[in-house]
Design a protein that fits this description.
By secondary structure, the chain is mainly alpha-helical. The chain has 15 helices and 5 strands. Strands 1-2-3 form a 3-stranded antiparallel sheet. It has a two-stranded antiparallel ribbon with strand order 4-5. Strand 1 and strand 2 form a beta hairpin. The longest helix has 16 residues.
Length: about 325
């Protein structure tokens, strides 16, 4: 082998992730479905034209999927008479959305390459595209995941953090998955795009920590704006922007945290906590550093796997018929 090829080989090997005998790697579908990534991006562009917020909603799916038994598409499964899935878990009900975008992507892929591209990989590609299409970084994703054969509402409830979470609990959660404090802060920057519900901030506005008072970390003018958006007794499903530039992936989210204008408690706590404040300040001052850290964190998040057996679903909302028969005990 030429010595000139060795550095390239080392780099390629570093991009490979071995998962119970399967390998995640870039360009996994280069032979079986060479247009897969182009198809996903085109469908994401269409979704963004229809509703700008939808791409942020799709990006959230990676977090809610990968933390619960790895990146296996389990979050996409609908409930059945025999299975309570993750869609109605405490962190997901009335919150996760845009599943129809994944459906559209899957339909386009099935036309081009039947039974080839997993729903779990669609979530990973679409999340990357959500960032790139809104002005953020673009990176190469590792693919080759299988879709889960089941989902668990309980597992989601036991793992996913609350909007009330503080920095310490978030650090502990991410540490369980070998994600560092820097990873956690950078990945929280996913809130650079999208919106959140009033439901998630009512306690901050009116009864922080049971005090009967608002969160003192809220900048007064911003608090008044949120009071108007989310009045006591109002519709708690009304949504507000997560940062000042909700359609652009940038470091404005971190600038807002520095100025006391974080929407969620779990956001603002990143600046009020000594353990995470330094990263917030660095990312608020250097967008390039934030982008690099976010890319790294998303790749590490995408590596999370359960090691369980899986399949390539034909419909992302249900397991394939042959596995339904097995789960129901039919021969």
């Amino acid at each position: 082998m030429s010595l000139l090829l060795i550095p390239r080989l080392i780099l390629y090997l570093l991009l490979l992730t071995v998962v119970t005998g399967e390998i995640l790697r870039p360009r996994f579908y280069s032979e079986t479905c060479p247009e897969a990534e182009t198809i996903v991006r085109n469908e994401m562009k269409k979704a963004m034209i229809r509703e700008a917020r939808s791409v942020a909603s799709v990006m959230r799916l990676q977090f809610h999927d990968c933390f619960v038994n790895g990146c296996d598409g389990s979050v996409l499964l609908d409930d059945t008479p025999n299975m309570l899935g993750e869609k109605l878990s405490l962190s997901n009900i009335n919150s996760l959305r845009s599943f129809e975008v994944v459906d559209d992507i899957k339909e386009a892929l099935e036309k081009a390459c039947p039974a080839t591209v997993s729903c779990a990989d669609i979530v990973i590609m679409a999340s990357r595209d959500a960032v790139a299409l809104t002005g953020g970084p673009d990176w190469e994703v590792k693919l080759g995941r299988k879709d889960s054969l089941t989902a668990s509402q309980k597992d989601s409830d036991d793992i996913m953090p609350s909007p009330r979470a503080n920095a310490t609990s978030l650090i502990d959660l991410f540490k369980r998955f070998d994600l560092s404090v820097k990873d956690m802060v950078a990945l929280s920057g996913s809130h650079s795009i999208g919106q959140g519900r009033c439901f998630s901030i009512m306690f901050r506005l009116y009864n922080q920590s049971g005090s009967g008072k608002p969160d003192p970390a809220l900048e007064p003018v911003y608090r008044k704006k949120l009071n108007k958006l989310c009045p006591l007794g109002g519709d708690e499903n009304v949504t507000g922007d997560l940062d000042a530039t909700p359609r652009v992936f940038d470091n404005q989210y971190f600038k807002d945290l520095v100025s006391g204008r974080g929407f969620l408690n779990s956001d603002q706590t990143l600046y009020t906590s000594r353990e995470t404040r330094g990263y917030v300040k660095r990312f608020s001052e250097d967008q390039g550093e934030f982008f690099r850290a976010f890319e790294e964190g998303m790749v590490k998040l995408g590596d999370l796997q359960s090691g369980r057996s899986g399949e390539v679903r034909i419909n992302c909302r249900v397991v394939n018929t042959r596995h339904n028969d097995v789960l129901l005990g039919d021969s």
